[in-house]
Amino acid sequence: MVGKEKGAFRLTCLDARAEALGLVTGKALADARAMIPRLDVVEEDLVADAVLLGAIADWCDRYTPLVALDGGDGLLLDISGCAHLFGGEAELGRDCLTRLKRQAVTVRAAIAGTPGAARAVARYGRGGIVAPGGEGEALLPLPAAALGIAAARQQGLARMGLISIADIETRPRAPLAARFGGDLLDRLDMAIGRLPEAVTPRRPLPDCMAERRFAEPLAHEAGIRLALSGLEQSLSEMLEARGEGAKLFEASFFRSDGAVRRINVETGMPVREPRVIDRLFALKLDALADPLDPGFGFDLIRLSAGATGPLLPDQAALATGNGDDVVDEIVAERALAEVANALSARLGPQRVRRFLAQDTHDPLRAALSVPALRYGEMMGLGTAPPWPEPVDLPERPLRLLTRPEPIEVLAEVPDGPPTRFRWRRAVHDVAKAEGPERIAAEWWISTGSLAPTRDYYRVEQSDGRRFWLYRDGLYGPGTSHPPWFMHGLFA
User: What is the tens place of the pLDDT at every residue in 416-434?
Assistant: First the structure.
């Protein structure tokens, strides 16, 4: 395979036959064709390679949730504490390699006590398992490139006769650090184990996780739902033991052919009841535009919980309400949260929204539309005032027109309330009017010229219909006929 580098095609990947003929990566394509005229060449596709590597990384989640990308063609798995689930490190490595080879993936692997040692032995050594504490012995014969240093630094080391890692290890450290930088020695120390090296997973780690493996792939929907219900019960018990609930649940379905499907459900408040989790997943699965396809069956199903938080048991009074206003408000809010959770699971979290009161008297910005699942979080920030106490006759309509619509108004005096107005080609006679409610521009947030002061009126017809009108501007010099607008209708 070839790719463009500085305007010229160079070899980027070789098969075993090409390596046997003496070709190396980085050689110019023209030079390679001079050696082998009938060279079979394919141009690389980095986007497709990244997609494939991501799919393989998703598949590797079956072994550990700590999967990190290692360059454009490698993966790093932290299997600490996971190997015993597969019968040991050797069995885990054998199972991984066998399954990948069945999927026509050529792979070289190594298991070591440090990420740097595993990377170096897999890429430049013979692979296999490095015995605990034997990282230094395994690394010394390998070339300096195994430390993952740049090509220019490799050439500088070669000019000094430092070809292998053993050459670097036996030289005085101070001159090497002064010549090539301290990170060269840091890489060596991390690979040997003298310094810690962190693995950054490509996906966030779950707070709790339960999984079930199947000796025979599971393909029936009833069996899949039953297995998922069992995992929900197990996860609920884990959360209960920790005194926590979760607001994010993810079900991962690993197919026997390597495909992975993940389904997420979110809640507005922490939950852990199995029946609640099961109902949300049932709604989500039923509403999928792309139904869950088991193919030849799932050999692993995993359920994980994230965004966990404290969740104390409810008192009996809080479960049913006892006439206390505070208790009734808590019960009502939890009931509303359950409805929002169910609707969000079925329709999507962005399509179910609630209004959050804002600290402003401008009706256009008095409420902020936020996803219902984020309502509790935003209320907890303390930036929004509570909604005003309800009154018998609301001062403002609950819903406003998308855009205020112009109207023609007749009034007894220029700056008085309207007595008749025309809206949408219909004439309306005003029986009662209240106002004005004068709203001026907020000078501390306005940019440019200030908006005109508005006078709002609540008007009512003889048949009981009520409207919310405003005059955009005040009578004065330069403003002889301020326009009128319809802004909302009362229920």
Answer: 899 999 999 999 999 999 9
